[in-house]
Design brief:
Blueprint lengths: L7 H15 L8 H8 L1 H5 L5 H8 L5 H12 L10 H13 L7 E6 L5 H16 L8 E7 L2 H9 L1 E2 L1 H4 L5 H7 E3 L5 E3 L1 H4 L2 E5 L12 E5 L9 H14 E8 L13 E5 L4 E5 L2
Parallel strand pairs: 1-2, 1-7, 2-6, 7-8
Antiparallel strand pairs: 3-5, 4-5, 8-10, 9-10
Helix pairs in contact: 4-5, 6-7
Length: 277
């Protein structure tokens, strides 16, 4: 029988390892999460115990296993048009401000998970252009990044099953933006996919090669990082934004005590943060 137990000292070593390689901070007594996420790797790598998986993944030469361990621990499903208000603010308040930009609007969806956020942004832009022809003459480009290689491959495929499609997606949008596949799933149409470019990126790494952006979405992500990592990421976001650039965080996230690069803009409903001049 495979051993899925995990000693306290091993768990704490893994917590440190995961934070160093991904920035994610595991809380106390989350051994159950490690067990559920990493158990499939025991059989795949023919290892006798979860302890052996952790020990081997920390060996520098075991890059593939280490990548799969981090991938498993950082993979999360998300929703379409999550919380609604950021997408309403985008189409009703923000896109009109950028209507005379003279170049494509550049948006970054950071830590895009299974792709629902960047594709929701793409659908919002297409709806805006449909309702206001010529309202965004330069169109838009969306960069979507994630740490997980498996998630990025799923994103590029742009196919979603019935369960995923039921999480925040209206029937009208399913009809307008999706087409059926032979395996029973639904695939996003080319006009949606063409607005999004996916790329592997660790939020703790440099952002220099990503370019500059007008809007950054990094929602429900910073809650997993230490205060020091959050501060580093926010400073890099500010440097990656064009003047007066906009940052969207999750509904439960705050910038309190995390630098002064941004000022809060209160809306009805919701808020966003704008880069200070």
């Amino acid at each position: 029988m495979l051993d899925k137990t995990l000693a306290e000292v091993e768990y704490n070593q893994f917590r440190l390892f995961l934070e160093q390689h991904s920035g994610i901070v595991l809380g106390q007594n989350k051994q159950y999460l490690v067990r559920s996420r990493l158990a499939p790797l025991l059989g795949k790598y023919n290892l006798p115990s979860l302890s052996a998986v952790l020990k081997q993944s920390m060996i520098p030469s075991e890059r593939h296993l280490r990548s799969e361990v981090i991938d498993a621990m950082t993979t999360n499903e998300t929703l379409w048009f999550r919380d609604t208000y950021p997408f309403e603010l985008l189409t009703q308040n923000i896109l009109p401000q950028y209507s005379r930009l003279g170049r494509p609007l550049k948006i970054w969806s950071a830590a895009c998970s299974s792709g629902q956020e960047p594709y929701s942004l793409a659908m919002s832009i297409l709806e805006y252009q449909q309702h206001k022809p010529g309202g965004l003459p330069g169109s838009a480009s969306i960069l979507a990044t994630d740490l997980s290689p498996s998630m990025l491959e799923r994103c590029k495929l742009a196919e979603y099953d019935t369960l995923a499609l039921g999480r925040g997606l209206s029937d009208a949008r399913k009809r307008q933006f999706f087409e059926p596949t032979t395996n029973g799933a639904m695939r996003l149409k080319t006009n949606v996919k063409s607005l999004v470019n996916f790329r592997a990126h660790n939020l703790l790494d440099s952002y220099t090669l990503l370019g500059k952006f007008d809007i950054i979405f990094c929602r429900n992500v910073l809650i997993y990082f230490s205060p020091e990592a959050k501060l580093k990421i926010l400073r890099q976001f500010a440097a990656a934004l064009n003047p007066k650039g906009i940052l969207f965080l999750g509904a439960s996230e705050s910038l309190a005590g995390l630098g002064d690069e941004f000022e809060m803009v209160r809306c009805n409903p919701g808020i966003y943060y704008q880069k200070r001049s």
